[in-house]
Amino acid sequence: PGKWQQGTLFERYYSDGNGKTWDTADDVTEDEAQAFTWTLTEDNLTQIHIMEMGGKIPKSYTVTVLSSTKLSYHDDYDVSYTFTKVE
Predict the structure, then answer these.
(1) Cα-to-chain-centroid distance, residue 72
(2) What is the pLDDT of residues 21-32, one digit of tens each?
(3) 70-74 and 56-66 beta bridge pairing
(4) What backbone phi and psi angles, to 5 degrees, belong to 11?
(5) Long-range contacts formed by 43-48: CB under 8 A, 24+ apart
(6) Terminal CA-to-CA distance of the chain, rounded, Å?
(7) pLDDT for the residue numbered 84
């Protein structure tokens, strides 16, 4: 749980399995963030992004680092993300 940042990209995870993501470079604030639900099973992070029009987009990642201050994961196309905890 907590708020994580990679550059202008933010993700917030809640302990109840909900979360949200936003990118300040797109002029999006946390109040306007896209909601998702998440599960973490071993090193498999699944986010299901909830679209405004009612659709759901599942995204699956492999977590490589998870500590109290750092979260790193990559997708099946080797796109990597590294977040630092900001709260």
Answers:
(1) 10
(2) 999 999 999 999
(3) antiparallel
(4) -135, 140
(5) 45/73, 47/19, 47/21
(6) 10
(7) 98
Torsion 65-67-72-73 (CA) sign: positive
Tokens representing residue 66 in the block: 């998870």
Measure the CA–CA gap between 18 and 65, rounded to whole angstroms. 21
Q: Which of 30, 31, 2 is nearest to 14 (CA)?
A: 2
Both tokens of 85, joined, read: 């905890």
- Residue 66 has, within 13 A of its CA and on its CB side, a CA count of 14
Amino acid at 32: E
Place of tokens 């992070």: 45
